[in-house]
Amino acid sequence: MRYALVTGGARGIGREIALKLASEGNFVLINYRSNDEEANRTLHMIKEQGGQGALLKFDVANREETDRILGHWIEANKETPIQILVNNAGIRKDTLLIMMGSEDWDSVLDTNLGGFYNVTKHVISPMLVKKYGRVINIVSLSGLKGLPGQVNYSAAKAGTIGATKALAQEVGRRGVTVNAIAPGFIKTEMTQDLKEDELKKLIPLNRFGEAKEVAELVAFIASEKSSYITGEVININGGLYS
Ligand code: NAI
After folding, report:
1. Which residues are catalytic?
2. Domain definitions of the chain by residue range
3. Which CATH architecture has domain 3-236?
4. Could you tell me if the CB of 8 is within 6 A of ligand 1?
5. Checking phi first, is residue 96 left (phi over 0); if not, alpha (psi -120 to 50) or beta?
């Protein structure tokens, strides 16, 4: 059994990833920031399907809190190092740059890109010692193409793509792979304000994706079967952009 950490696992894509990784026999640590009820629901769903997991509550954007809580967990569980890390926690605060307040910029960068640093920094060392690891960063079409109204989010996701490619080269020799997965439009609370009927006309598969479909791809990259894939950005967007 491997230990997996999924950040932002209380709902949406993170929840489906947690469920899928648990169904494949991994012990899943569900990170979440504040929603105890939804995080407990994810854990309950894992247990209902016969899997194992636990909750790990911290704000990935808060370095001090991440150091304290995740750092403590790693220190106290040296026998069961985290070997699969899915950096999924993310937020968007869309507005044109001319209207963008510094809080909109900082919070999106701190969560999406800062969260990658704060969490991965802790998890990578035990992976290097064990000579095995899978780091999977959930990025976005926005980080590849750039989308208007998302200068902050595009920058954060593009930054994470750069970090993915650089880290992959640092740790490959030690059996650790680092990849990014770039979803297009996926049906979650994050996209519920978007006009699906209009946007789907732009998508060759003519629909938004499901969180479960992203989880299937993550599970493959998280498994031993993906052993020769690293430094990649894998699109999952119904053909919208490639
Ligand atoms: P969501 O809003 O349903 O889920 C995001 C989760 O991250 C929430 O549970 C939220 O509480 C958590 N989170 C946010 N800030 C956090 C923090 N500071 N610390 C810990 N947890 C935090 O959104 P969704 O759609 O499930 O998004 C998951 C990931 O997929 C995000 O990184 C998002 O940017 C990315 N993505 C989503 C797309 C979509 O169409 N839904 C498209 C492309 C990328």
Report:
1. 153
2. 3-236
3. 3-Layer(aba) Sandwich (3.40)
4. yes
5. beta
